[in-house]
Amino acid sequence: MTATEPTTETGPTGATSTPSPTVRLPSTFRVGLARGAVELKQFFRQRDAVVFTFAFPAFIALMLGLIFDEPAYGIPGLTISQVFVVGMIAYGIVSTAFISVGVGIAVDREDGTLKRLRGTPATAVAYFVGKICLVAASTVGGIALLLAVGVLLFGLRLPTDPARWLTFGWLLALSVVACTLLGIAASSLARSAKSAPAVLNLPAIALQFVSGIFVLNDTLPAGMLSVASFFPVKWMGQGFRSVFLPDSMMAQEAAGSWQHGTTALVLGAWCVGGLLLCLLTFRWTERGSR
């Protein structure tokens, strides 16, 4: 009998009972999309969280841009404020995907949301897909606001070459997936929802400095640049600069080129590694609970 055939049962008298149809559960991806819709509804109901998520990276870019609004590296039309605005896209993704997701999962675990969710058809992978959907949607809004700040206040020019937007597309997808999965995995490091922001903000902020997001690459020691090359933030910042800044800017990168191939490999590796970490460390309940 195949999985799609109805089952029949024979009673004590030999009579055959009414066949019961086989119920097919939705696929993991479909459940994940449904979970993503729920996550988005919950997110947009929290207006303070929406404003903070969208506005915070743009606010930092605005402050840095106003402070360092001067020509950059002798490149015509390029200012340091534009460099900071573009690099801040990477911070916006880290803030939304790594910090916010990690803290949110710690809260869900503590208040029993994950424990209740475990009793539904939602598998761990479906839950991960839902979080990625949430991050993708909220990240697009944050990037749109960042670019608006760059264009309106600092003279940033959006690319007209379709190849650059194609680069932006795969770079954004890999960055969102990698950072979301790492945020899910890192949520297990926090012992409580109260400690989660401190646990997750420390590595996130540190990486912004050593990866050339909050400071310029030419001000960083070689040792910091070497350390940063093992983590995704450095490659995210470099990748987004390659999309929105002129090619003459690539001389300021550590390797003197945009390294798109290496960027894709590193971020892809972090996507795979992040998924493995999630599957190994993800917990539906708090430590010590059943």
Task: Describe the protein.
This protein has 290 residues and is mainly alpha-helical. It has one domain (28-281). It is 65% helix and 0% strand. The chain is built from ten helices and no strands. It has helices at 28-45, 47-67, 80-110, 113-117, 124-154, 162-186, 196-210, 222-228, 232-244, 260-281. Helix 2 (47-67) runs antiparallel to helix 3. It is elongated and about 70 Å long. The chain starts with 27 loop residues before the first helix and ends in a 9-residue tail after the last helix.
**SSE sequence, one letter per element:** HHHHHHHHHH
What share of residues are in beta strands?
under 5%
Task: Give the helix/strand class.
Answer: mainly alpha
* Residue share in helix: 55-70%
Number of strands: 0
Number of helices: 10
* Gyration radius, rounded: 23 Å
Distance between the termini: 37 Å
- Number of discrete domains: 1
Using the alpha-carbon principal axes, give the shape: elongated
Largest sheet: none
Question: What's the arrangement of secondary structure elements?
Answer:
Layout: H1 28-45, H2 47-67, H3 80-110, H4 113-117, H5 124-154, H6 162-186, H7 196-210, H8 222-228, H9 232-244, H10 260-281
